[in-house]
Amino acid sequence: MIFDRYLELIENRLYNYFDIEREYEYQQKTFNLYAQSKIRSERYFASKKLKVYAMENHEHVFLHKTEQLTGNELDHFWRILVKATEEKVSPHNEHMSTIITGVIVSEREPDAIVLEQLQKAKHNKSFALGFKGWVYIRLLLVNADTGSVYFNKRGKEVKEVYSPK
Questions:
Q1: What is the pLDDT at residue 63?
Q2: Which of 33, 43, 72, 98 fits a 20 to 30 Å CA distance from 66?
Q3: Which residues make Cβ contacts (< 8 Å) with residue 142, sequence separation at least 6?
Q4: C-alpha gyration radius of the chain
Q5: Total structural domains within the chain
Q6: Structural domain of residue 58, as residue ranges?
Q7: Neighbour tally for 75: CB within 10 Å
Q8: What is the pLDDT of residue 61?
Q9: What sign does the CA torsion over 45, 48, 53, 55 have?
Q10: How far apart are CA 17 and CA 145, in angstroms?
Q11: In 3D, which of 39, 84, 77 has the Cα closest to residue 58?
């Protein structure tokens, strides 16, 4: 599948729930697509003046294209995602969760060592024992030619969303 078509497909899938930006600059790296979702839910008692509770869920998607994913490139991408967990998350009493999703689109199949590194990658952090929410990273690798999708444990949750099929 041609990368431009894949990018358009992902944009269409995320359009209703995310604010999308192409050619997004972050940490001295240009991402082909960046998407941000902020959802706030509130419960009331009798009227809107009597709020019982509120919670916020955020998600940030960083999509990057590469010709052939290497171990060094994966490490660099991972460090950027971990940095995003520090900079894009602001825990407070109504913050429930923030998810950082990193998607790498490769033109060629990666080698077995890089795949193993990707599948073992994990980052979870809770704030104030979870009372101020948590953050974790999803990591996916999409082979544009074969349609294969590789992911870490958390990335499995959204593999269908980022599948080119």
A1: 96
A2: 98
A3: 6, 103, 104, 105, 106, 148, 149, 150, 162, 163, 164
A4: 17
A5: 1
A6: 3-162
A7: 13
A8: 96
A9: positive
A10: 27
A11: 39
Q: Which two tokens stand for residue 31?
A: 């991402």
Q: Mean pLDDT, 10 residues at a time, over the chain (165 residues)?
A: 87 93 92 92 79 84 93 94 88 82 92 92 83 88 89 92 89
pLDDT of residue 1: 61
pTM for the whole thing? 0.89
User: Measured on CA atoms in the order 158, 4, 20, 139, is the torsion positive or negative?
Assistant: positive
Q: Which two tokens stand for residue 88?
A: 């894009």
Residues paired with residue 21 on neighbouring β-strands, in sequence order:
34
Structure tokens at 48: 């809107």
Q: Coil, strand, or helix at residue 134?
A: strand
The answer to whether residues 51 and 42 touch, using CB atoms and an 8 Å cutoff, is yes
Neighbours of 165 (CB within 10 A): 8
DSSP-H helix ranges across the chain:
3-14, 71-87, 112-120, 159-162
